[in-house]
Amino acid sequence: MKQPAALIAMLFVIGCGTQRSDPPTSDGPTHTSDPFAAQPDTSEGLVNVSADLEAVLEHGALATACAESAAAPGDRKKRLLCGKAMFFYESFGTPGVPKPIITWLVNNFPDDVGPGFSKLGMVSDPHSSENLPLGLPLGPRLGTVDTLSFGCASCHFGRLADGRYAIGAANLAYDYGRMNLMMTVLPALAIPGANEADHDPDALAMLAPLRTRMAMNSSIKSALITALLPLIAGGSGMLPAFDKANEHWYARWRTGTMDFFIQPLPFDDQVHTISKISSLWAIPDESERAAQGIDSAMLGWTGGTASLHNFLVGFVDLGGGKIADWSDARLGPLADYVYSLRAPTPTLMPAAEQVTQGGAIFATACLECHGGPRGMGSTLYAFETIGTDAAIKWWADGPDHDGQPCCGLRFPVPDRVTNRIKSPRLTGLWAMDRFLHNGALDSLEQLLCLAPRPGATETAFGDGGHTFGCELPEADRVALAAYLRAH
Questions:
Q1: What does the buried/exposed string (b/e) look like for 296-315 if buried means 16 or more CB atoms within 10 Å of the residue's CB?
Q2: 43 pLDDT exceeds 90?
Q3: HSE on the CB side for 375, CA within 13 Å?
Q4: Alpha-carbon gap, residue 345 to 281, rounded angstroms
Q5: 5-19, 30-44, 104-118: least confident range
Q6: For 394-403, which contacts have Cβ atoms below 8 Å and span 24 or more sequence positions?
Q7: Average pLDDT score, the chain
Q8: DSSP notation for 443-473
Q9: Helix crossing, 76-89 with 328-339: angle to 10°?
């Protein structure tokens, strides 16, 4: 079977860290304007945040949105609506996971999977008669078998703590590792002759409740055989698989985190890294960056992706789609839609006095590194300066550490391997509970040394770094957290 390269997720990662109490010296542009100044609303009235899921899905209008946009090329609202439809339902031609496996899991494990993988942090599609999740659009067929590919909404659409759905939100509840083990290891263990010793103990422990249910109900295994038969009969071959070491990593990741250059992708940099899913809110476009003297959007944790357009092209390529099928014009509606996304306003604002105090502290203690649009930085930093877990330094570089894309990777110009780390955008922090690039911290309080950290030191999982601000008086750090949560 062709490996489902579409397991790659759209990761615009945010977070930063350092061991020092003084900020690193930046050689990039210096910004003196308010990085959180209000942005114009360019959404054309589309509903991107609401407790009403049908409203977020535009009451069914997404189904015909791109056809209607093509018929009216000058209508910006229809163009954005098409981009929104792509956000939820476009596979970009990337190979996916056999659909019969997904439906088998949904139908037979309500306590562990739930409708639309809701037990694993995804959102069930109310328009799906098969209880499929939003973010797994229909992909290319494997022989005669339908597949479901990973799209934008799998990682960047979630439900906020106040109950609202938010497009562009980092889905930090998404248990990506568990989901992939369910789709691969669980079926493999049911095949006659399967040997438990071939699999990682942590992965087996994670799947134990589902295996117990299968053992108690023979109809579940029968349904699995029915699901697998079209794959065998259609000549699609075996299911994708991970080696034992990579099964171990899949079982270890926290929700909302992943390594996306790993089996079963055709691109494996052979370096275990962990990246936190990020929010897509308020990405600066080219004109805004130019006005502030920033020549790159610095997407991705290592900051090597120069623009949203390059990220989308790279996603198609790395996911196994055909770049020739995805021209600038075809990707344009999605890019314009993502640029229109804004962070939702907190339902409970911090005290105004604390926010004002925190703003003054931010201006003196944080602005040098976070003075760009929405708090993004304008330069990249060495890991030795920043101090967070440096495993990701070798992301896409590979074990040879030569500073060039490894393992057959092709980067659009001027994207590059940087071996460095960026300062992130800071909008919407009130809605987040993962901090640092690997998501090792649970709160701003831990980040600002107002609460103890877990003390993780294992490579790739380490929670050290980012003691910037930790030397400030406690009241100042409390006020700084309030300021950050107000945006």
A1: bbbbbbbbbbbbbbbbbbbb
A2: yes
A3: 20
A4: 12
A5: 5-19
A6: 394/269, 394/271, 394/273, 394/419, 395/261, 395/269, 395/271, 395/273, 395/275, 395/300, 395/301, 395/302, 396/261, 396/269, 396/302, 396/304, 397/269, 397/271, 398/269, 398/270, 398/271, 399/270, 399/271
A7: 89
A8: -HHHHTTSS------STTT------TTTTS-
A9: 90
CA atoms of 226 and 216, how far apart (whole Å): 18
Q: pLDDT-based confidence at 315, cuts 50/70/90?
A: confident
The whole-angstrom separation of Cα 467 and Cα 23 is 9
List for the chain the helix, strand, coil content (%; round to 5): 40, 5, 55
| Confidence class for position 235, pLDDT limits 50, 70, 90 | low
- Six-digit token string for 482: 């309030």
Integer distance in angstroms from the first to the last C-alpha of the chain?
A: 46
> In angstroms, rounded to a whole number, what is the distance separating the alpha carbons of residues 367 and 346?
23
Secondary structure (H, E, C), 346-412: CCCCCCHHHHHHHHHHHHHHCCCCCCCHHHCCCCEECHHHHCCCHHHHHCCCCCCCCCCCCCCCCCC
pLDDT at 265: 74
Buried b / exposed e over 95-120, threshold 16 CB at 10 Å, is bbbbbbbbbbbbebbeebbbbbbbbb
pLDDT of residue 21: 37
Q: Which tens digits make up the pLDDT trace of 446-483?
A: 999 999 999 999 999 999 998 999 999 999 999 999 99
∠ CA 192-197-201, rounded to 5°: 120
